[in-house]
Amino acid sequence: MNRRAARGARALAALAVLLAASAGPAVAVARYPLPEWAAALRSGAETASRFPEADAVVLLDDWTITASKGERSGERHWAVRVMTRDGIAASRLEIGRNLFQDVRKVRAWVRDPDGTVTSYDEDDGTLIGSRDAWTLDDATRLVLDLPEVEPGSTVYVSYRFRKISDLPQDFFPLQRGVPVALARVSLSVEGGTRARARVGGGSNPGPDEVTQRGSWEFRDLPGWTEREEDDETPRRVERLLVLDYATGPGPYPFEDWGAVARWIAALYVPVPDKTGELEALVKAVGAGGGDPLDAALKAARGLRYFAIEIGWGGWRPRPVATTLSRGLGDCKDKSFVLVEALRRLGIEAMPVVIVAPRHRTVDPALPSAFFFDHVVTGIPWAGREVRPGMTVAEAPGLGPLRLVDPTLGVDAPEDLHFSYEGASALPVDARATGLIAVPRSPAAQNRIAARVAIAFRGDAIEVAEERRFGGVERRLLVDGRGVIHESAEMRSRALSRAEAICTRPEAVEASSPRSATPETWSYTASFRCAAPLVPLGERAVLALPPLGAIEEVPLPQPGDEPVPLAYEYTTESEVVVTGRAARALPPPFEVANALGRVALQAAAEGETATVRRSFTLSAQEVTADQREQAMALRRALDAANRAVLVYAAGP
Prior knowledge:
Layout: H1 3-13, E1 16-18, H2 36-41, H3 45-48, E2 56-68, E3 71-82, E4 93-94, E5 101-111, E6 117-121, E7 126-128, E8 130-132, E9 137-139, E10 141-144, E11 154-163, E12 169-173, E13 180-190, E14 193-200, E15 209-210, E16 213-221, E17 240-247, H4 257-265, H5 277-287, H6 292-301, E18 304-305, H7 320-326, E19 328-329, H8 331-344, E20 350-355, E21 374-380, E22 392-395, E23 399-404, E24 424-427, E25 436-437, E26 447-457, E27 460-469, H9 471-476, H10 487-498, E28 506-511, E29 521-529, E30 534-536, E31 539-543, E32 563-564, E33 569-578, E34 589-592, E35 596-605, E36 608-617, E37 621-622, H11 627-641, E38 644-648
Parallel strand pairs: 1-10, 2-13, 18-19, 26-33
Antiparallel strand pairs: 1-7, 2-3, 3-11, 4-10, 5-6, 5-11, 8-9, 12-17, 13-16, 14-15, 14-17, 20-21, 20-24, 21-23, 22-23, 24-25, 26-27, 27-29, 28-29, 30-31, 31-38, 32-37, 33-36, 34-35, 35-36
Helix pairs in contact: 5-6, 5-8, 6-8, 7-8
């Protein structure tokens, strides 16, 4: 980075810009009249009317870029129409999302529903600089959060930028949480620079390669729904534009995934440990006498997590000695500490960049470093034992790698958080040739087994339930430190299931282990019910606890993208009722297809009735063509949930 670029990065690092977030005075419209490009959009009401269900619509996201000799500069115009109060959040814009931008001449306008226009710039906002002597670095955010925005308002923003990095690529995620009516990128290349354009999530509406000028337009892009932002639900493939840059003939720097891996690997360069911090860590691990990998992983996980993402700080890790002396670091810092410690101990290791499916779906045809938002550690694992809780994946060019996350809690029993099942990853190693597909645990491993004992005591019943969890389902109830959630949450879950059997459960109790292991674990619950039977003429029915929720099987509409499923799993339930002879049992059935299976069996002997039910979801996604199969599973699951035992109405 040159001296001028360094000054620009320091200036940006010193500021967090929150435009007019404080209760400052309004700005007269004459100060910055609405520019021609914004006036052409007017209020945007007509465009927004094409999206009647949306809370807001991005009317325009327009980038004009000039690329010359490794630098890019240009201007961005952005406008959003707010329709509802929930849509006000969509008017909040983070500037400089592509890294290393020197941003200048930030202007913003708010057009009120009555047509009044108010303008803002940096001087109208609050300039916040933060510096922490402990972290020895600046923290920054550049955000526009304009006041006086209300339903019916239109917000316009423009700014100029200059990219001062030598990252040979621009990455444009075109979709947001609300629909985008028009996203446009216009590019001019000079000074022997050429550019290659690739599009993810659809066809390319512009040129594949640019040696002078090119333009790409994307219209009516849907917004992400709330469900697609859930922690447990992967996102669908998003529409994005990737521009690669090269000067002169030859391949583009990010020609393939191996080139991306080599580019990132060049940032992980060890420096001499003048403080002795790393050497002390290695000695402490070696003196422990246990598994050095486990000990080094605990040491890295024990460092406090703190992220600083300014300029190259978002890519290049800090020196290992610096991270150890501070006692804190972000994911790449902690991973670099673990990698260097293991190498000193004679264990081969490397950083691995990764992204969870819930954050982004990686397009294998678009080699890019921008896809990834997290760093873990990979250890070659060929010929070694794979134990429960370990994550081992095949890495092209490297063979089996065990992936461990040094940002989890010290006592976390698994290598990776469950949200990384099905993730894409890339080893930071010059030998890497392609992406890692992190395996998903099969439905049989993610097994929930419920045993429910119901005993009649006169007209009342006593219920005792044990639920055993494995794999992902276990981890859903365990925090990052390996500690099971509070007993109050377990009691809440037990109460919810109790209320499915009777309206007024009594003496509800629940208990669970204090810590988790990679194997299955269980919690138990019990309650009483004074009047569990629902009269039905001369007979009465006893409801059973639900097996699952039909909403767990999505129903994509024709033309929809496939809906990814968070994980595969099997739920099994055995309910045994004693103390009274059943008059009728639920009829047995089984429904199975490519998406999963639902089955029910029932038997009775004397005063004991047993009902066994199971629900397996074994697909990784549901397509629109599978809608009928999904509906069949939903109907079967609904029938299993409505299963009842029939008894005589009297004693």
